[in-house]
Amino acid sequence: MSLYDKVFPPKKMTISNGKTIEKPASRLPLVAVILLIMTAISVKITGFDLRVLAERGNQFFVILGMMMPPRVSYMSQIWKPLFDTIKMSLLGTVVGAVLVVPFAMAASTNVIKSRLVISVMRLFLSIVRTLPTLVTALIATYVFGLGTLAGTTAIAIFTFAYMGKILYEEIETVDMGAFEAVEAIGATRVRAFVSAIIPQVLPSYISNGLFCFEGNVRYAAILGYVGAGGLGLILNEKLGWREYSSVGMILVMLFLTVFIIESVSRYCRKKLV
Q1: The whole model's pTM is what?
Q2: In 10 A of CB 211, how many CB atoms?
Q3: Phi and psi (nearest 5°) for 173?
Q4: Could you tell me which of 194, 254, 199, 245 has the C-alpha nearest to residue 224?
Q5: Chain segment 165-209, per-residue pLDDT in tens
Q6: Are 20 and 12 in contact (CB under 8 A)?
Q7: 118-123 LR contacts (CB < 8 Å, sep 24+)
Q8: What mean pLDDT value characterizes the chain?
Q9: Using an 8 Å Cβ cutoff, are 217 and 89 in contact?
């Protein structure tokens, strides 16, 4: 019996057959108290002030109102950065998703028997996952210079980390019968992996890649803030000049683009899974 059950003993109940059972006390009050304590600590540490939010929160709607109506004449200058954003997202997603396959294979316990190799691969993927995309993009701008190459690199690294964990966990759930049969007729482990395991994980792999691409389009729009190209460059510029009607047009175009991509991606994923 746990300490909570000792403090709040279970309620005894008699069911229709005359047998007595014990119903444990609800943990909800304990969870609520813990959440309140953690919230109070968070407010204290972060310096969050609800009064400031109440006083200044309406400024969001003021700025939003200044974006309306969007400046339609500015649309012609949005197309190129928008296509740059889509190209960065697509290329970065494809590169990251393809490069991660051998790493995911090496991190799978049912394919690789060496615990050292598995541990090293999983540690490497975990380290890559901890890198914030904006920080990666900023470092890439120092390496490759300002432009879409830095943004593509950052998105590829993010996709690599995101897809890596999902893929090796997916590989560990497959039926290994076909893999073992291909190995039994003399195929190498890599050949057996390509022939027997890839076909089983391919639908979910493509589905996850499409989902990752959806998110990457949104992330790529922000990378311009650190000079990585795309919509973020002109978005940062127009916000700096307080040209809110132009900002509104940029956001409308981004919304429509993301909506179309998500709709197509959702349709494709339904067909795959």
Answers
A1: 0.78
A2: 18
A3: -100, -5
A4: 254
A5: 999 999 998 888 888 888 888 888 888 888 889 989 998 898 889
A6: yes
A7: 121/168, 122/168
A8: 85
A9: yes
Give strand ranges (E) for the chain.
11-14, 20-23
Q: Backbone phi, then psi, for 20, in 5-degree steps?
A: -100, 130
Give the burial string for 140-157 (b: 16+ CB within 10 Å, else e): bbeeeebbbbbbbbbbbb
**Computed over its alpha carbons, how large is the radius of gyration of the chain?**
26
- 145 secondary structure, DSSP code: -
Q: Region of 174 please: left (phi>0), alpha (psi -120 to 50) or beta.
A: beta
Residue type, 34: I
Most confident of 43-57, 117-131, 258-272: 117-131
Kindly report the CATH class assigned to 72-272.
Answer: mainly alpha
3-state secondary structure the chain: CCHHHHHCCCEEEECCCCCEEEECCCCHHHHHHHHHHHHHHHHHHHCCCHHHHHHHCHHHHHHHHHCCCCCHHHHHHCHHHHHHHHHHHHHHHHHHHHHHHHHHHHCCCCCCCCHHHHHHHHHHHHHHHCCCHHHHHHHHHHHHCCCHHHHHHHHHHHHHHHHHHHHHHHHCCCCCHHHHHHHHCCCCHHHHHHHHHHHHHHHHHHHHHHHHHHHHHHHHHHHHHHCCCCHHHHHHHHHHCCCHHHHHHHHHHHHHHHHHHHHHHHHHHHHHC
